[in-house]
Automatic annotation (TrEMBL), chains A, B:
Function, as annotated: In the presence of manganese, represses expression of mntH and mntS. Up-regulates expression of mntP.
Compartment(s) of residence: Cytoplasm
Taxonomic placement: Bacteria, Pseudomonadati, Bacteroidota, Flavobacteriia, Flavobacteriales
Main location, first listed in the record: cytoplasm
GO molecular function: DNA binding; DNA-binding transcription factor activity; protein dimerization activity; transition metal ion binding
Protein name: Transcriptional regulator MntR
Family to which this protein belongs: Belongs to the DtxR/MntR family.
Keywords, ordered alphabetically: Activator, Cytoplasm, DNA-binding, Manganese, Repressor, Transcription, Transcription regulation
Record organism: Flagellimonas meridianipacifica
Length: 230, 230
DNA sequence: ATAAATTTTTAGACAAATCTAAAAATTGGT
DNA sequence: ACCAATTTTTAGATTTGTCTAAAAATTTAT
């Protein structure tokens, strides 16, 4: 067991603290970019004053660097914690889809709860049961036990040129309406998509998927990730 | 969906409230027996004054009957809530043992967390995945979705007469030391036990299990449930 | 450079769940 | 029936995480 994992074990984090760390990570706090109080407040659906209070507490605990009026960045330890929560969230999502017949628009809400369960054995066994999956149902990468993960080579469908071909590998928007729309139009991860045409007027696309022609708006295309075929 | 299940859905219960309801049920609050403030405090590892506060809140919510200085009993709704938590707890315990290779002494701690996850679909799918089990790893019955469950025909091994035969169906003590002791001596649920002799001096038993003779103390026998063979 | 707008922090309050200490009610022994 | 012991409740304080309103710092615009 690494030295960092020992710290992880001793740290006792409340559910609220864990949610702050996770959201700061998603806002880019893993790099040295400073994350603003307001940005965190918006994501947490809370007030900036609450964020300030929590930032002080998390800095005290060694999870982030906080300078008044500047913003925060995660410490190395903070990144570790963030990755461990994201790992749990995404593994539970896979579990729900693979083992319990959940649809990909139902899993997020439940995973938000399950990600806070404290048991190292539990999540490692779930990982094993699932065969150590690399990606969650939305195409997002699952960090390994020691925090490693590969960001996939992907781009937005809306950034693909005419006549190019790609494989659908993820979604940017994970809202139920968007995912239901994809289901209705039989667009799923793994499908091959060819961009037939892009309309000058509104950037809407004509694509070939499942051997069928389909017209989709720019907004749809800008929320679908594909891996370009060379 | 029954009328009561509709109530269950609307009720939003905190983790602490759920734990109080569960413990009151286990103390016998499903009958009309009054449960004392002190008894609840002891089980909850909290102070009587805290129990009084919570009793008022839960009575306000319609989950229990509370009369000052008298004690509490669960309402019909309170019993429903208790059974739904116990159902979740025990199903998760089965899941951990059957699907994730947990041992029967490891499951309780994790189930204490998992029992509070809010998702009807989640627990119903776990139930289905497990093949609708009737008993948990410790031999305790699992309430069905609508709160029905059979208490098993069982008695303590220490209450069995000489020469009688029974099948081990449950444990009274679920502590790790006791369960580890049973593992070490290869005593498991489902095993047939014959009482060969009972020592007058200390009530220790000589039993036949797995075709081997074994001596166990009265304390061990008084924490093992068996179903008597006719 | 100064003023205006925005962001962030502070100060003080609140709800939930807990605690301690003291008061009130109940129970039990004689 | 009385006193003493026990149980239970009340009153007031504490911690966590949040809020509002006001003050302070920073950023943007003129
Ligand atoms: Mn998610
Ligand atoms: Mn996801
Ligand atoms: Mn248990
Ligand atoms: Mn059990």
């Amino acid at each position: 067991m690494t030295n960092k994992n020992v710290f992880l074990k001793k740290l006792c984090m409340t559910r609220s603290e864990e949610n702050y760390i996770k959201i700061i990570f998603h806002l880019g706090g893993n790099t040295s970019t400073l994350i603003s109080t307001n940005a965190i407040a918006e994501q947490m659906a809370t007030k900036p004053s609450s964020v300030t209070d929590m930032s002080k507490k998390l800095a005290e605990k060694g999870l982030l660097h906080y300078k008044r009026y500047q913003g925060v960045t995660l410490t190395e330890l903070g990144v570790k914690v963030a990755l461990s929560i994201i790992r749990k969230h995404r593994l539970w999502e896979v579990f729900l889809v693979e083992k319990l017949d959940f649809t990909w628009d139902e899993v997020h809400e439940v995973a938000e709860q399950l990600e806070h369960i404290k048991s190292e054995k539990l999540i490692d066994q779930i990982d094993a049961l699932l065969g150590y999956p690399k990606y969650d149902p939305h195409g997002d990468p699952i960090p390994s036990k020691d925090g490693e993960f590969l960001e996939r080579d992907k781009q937005l469908l809306s950034d693909m040129p005419k006549q190019s071909i790609g494989v659908c590998v993820g979604v940017k928007d994970t809202s139920t309406p968007f995912l239901k729309f994809l289901d209705k139009n039989q667009i799923a991860l793994g499908n091959t998509i060819k961009v037939l045409d892009i309309e000058d007027f509104d950037q809407s696309l004509s694509i070939l998927i499942n051997n069928k022609k389909l017209n989709i708006s720019h907004q749809i295309a800008s929320n679908l990730y594909v891996k370009k075929q060379n």
